[in-house]
Specification:
homodimer, 341 residues, alpha/beta, seven-stranded mixed sheet, six-stranded mixed sheet, 13 strands, 29% helix, globular
Chain lengths: 341, 341
């Protein structure tokens, strides 16, 4: 079956990566329809050796579509998801607009792809840092309860969009010339570390931190999981990292963790300190796999496991995970009960 | 009393900052003697409107010295500390060579400056990240026991010395030109995050992480303190940050923490999320104070306090703390029992 695919928000960093992956992975579609806000409409995007026009989104945009990948913001998703669903498309939404709705599955295919069996017509794609963290936690859940995690993230600037990356690069040029980096909507990214992503909630945590809390619980199916997160932007273009400490009952050690990780699809163990091998964003950028390593018995609590993850926030953290959902959804539509992620 | 001051390792980032601070803060010395390895000897360094020669260190270098600031590596300190002490100088050592010796005080003047009353002739200056973390913990100890801390650091490249900063800048230029940053002794700093500082120990922790463990216990006087650290290099020139979760018995909340911090010398509370005010290395660089903020009740354990610190790793994290030790030592030598840090 060939799908009529629509990508909404096709000109952003995530939308562009979706389009690249759809082509490179051979998702069964002839010619995707690219949609964007009025501002970006009229541009063209590369596809299969030629270029596709980017059209402004309107009420008729989703006519005949079977799969719609949404890579815009929350407002765009809230406005257009009902229209796309009414037109008969399944919506796979990268925004956080629907992630916390009880009737919307929040899917990482390797972890809870079986939720697609119910043929939902709206599927939420999780937060970029959360995906990397749960990918490392999920394989450790077999025969164990996960009770608590602490994490501090090292998030790249591409997570804030292409204009943020431009601002980082302008700032880097300025600091190399001995000048300070200019402020934008927030503090400079260049030569700085910013413990503030998304808006602050009343409890002193940012919404980005709360996404890690809420989404880890939902994806892993552990509603009472205790989670504390500090989400921090670092001056890196692509690749989110996180330092994680996790408690399992019964506890497990680093050797056992590495064994479980080694056989889990989508994970790559990079853990050989003697050879200076550990997860880093420069190695994760451009890869599909989430890198995990530096596994060790926690020094402050020998029942805890501490480790480090790095992944490409535009790929597994966003576009790849969405395309994988589309692939599994499409395979199930063709009567193939499951595909390798 | 005017001191005969010697700075060993005067041409490095920390040595240079020591010299600037000695002049700017008016430490009572006429003309410091600058020493360095043979490689750097022969250069001159700015001092009081003119320049001072940098001499190669030898057995006679410390004759007549009263205070010696050491800003070289462990080997340099082990070689020359006995010579300087034998010549009658007090040695204030920024290396980690003597920090873990029971008979060597490890001093942050605001916290345990009273150890100088015993007139030690060798004083160790703590690790750069540790200083910022203990500065935030110490004011909270009044009437409470500190039982456990978790920390993940965001350490700037200047902590690895001036050649590392040059390598970062070369890497930034390369990535801005669309080329990959080159490897040096280790992975590139530019456009990357490196969870590896100093060498790995057998327990899977790096020595940098173990310094935070050992030195927090020693400086705070809590030998059974449970500490777990993940030390990470980020592509920032100056300013180390850390995400910290700490347990006190009895517990304390963020409001109480902010009240204690507000009156502690050397700390500055920067904690107004609604106004996007929180500690960042770009604001800490060039400041004497350690910045502390983002204080909140820990979400995973309401008995814990989570916060974020940022400080200038060359100043309070190294040179400033050493010069403050010299100042308090000198004030005590002149019969002034204490000075404001």
């Amino acid at each position: 079956m060939t799908h009529r695919l629509v990508v909404l928000g096709a000109t952003g960093l995530v939308g562009r990566t979706m389009l690249e992956l759809i082509e490179a992975r051979g998702f069964p579609t002839a010619r995707p329809r690219l949609l964007a806000s009025d501002r970006s409409a009229g541009r063209t995007m590369p596809w299969a050796g030629s270029r596709l026009p980017v059209e402004p989104v309107d009420e008729a945009s989703f006519a005949g579509a079977t799969v719609a990948l949404f890579a815009g913001g929350n407002d765009v998703s809230r406005r257009w998801a009902p229209v796309a669903r009414a037109a008969g498309a399944v919506v796979i939404d990268n925004s956080s607009a629907f992630r916390y709705d009880d009737d919307v599955p929040l899917v990482v295919p390797e972890i809870n792809g079986d939720l697609l069996a119910a043929r939902p017509t709206l599927i939420a794609n999780p937060n970029c840092s959360t995906i990397a963290i749960v990918m490392a936690l999920a394989p450790l859940l077999r025969g164990r309860r996960l009770t608590r995690i602490w994490t501090s993230t090292y998030q790249s600037v591409s997570g804030a969009g292409s204009s943020a990356v431009e601002r980082l690069e302008e700032g880097l040029r300025a600091t190399l010339a001995g000048k300070p980096a200019a402020r934008g909507d927030g503090p400079p990214f260049a030569d700085n570390v910013v413990p503030h992503i998304d808006r602050f909630e009343d409890n002193g945590y940012t919404r980005e931190e709360m996404k890690i809390v809420w989404e880890s619980r939902k994806i892993l199916g552990v509603p009472d999981l205790a989670v504390s997160a500090t989400a921090v932007r670092v001056p890196v273009r692509v690749g989110h990292s996180a330092s994680v400490t996790a408690w399992f009952d019964p506890p497990l050690g680093p050797d056992e963790a590495r064994r479980e990780w080694a056989t889990f699809p989508g994970l790559r163990v990079v853990d050989d300190p003697a050879e200076s091998r550990y997860p880093m964003p420069m190695d994760a950028a451009g890869l599909d796999d989430v890198l995990v390593g530096r596994a060790r018995v926690d020094l402050a609590d020998p029942d805890a496991l501490t480790f480090f993850v790095a992944s490409d926030n535009l790929r597994k953290g966003a576009a790849l995970n969405a395309v994988q959902i589309a692939e599994q959804w499409a395979a199930r539509a063709s009567g193939q009960p499951s595909v390798a992620p």
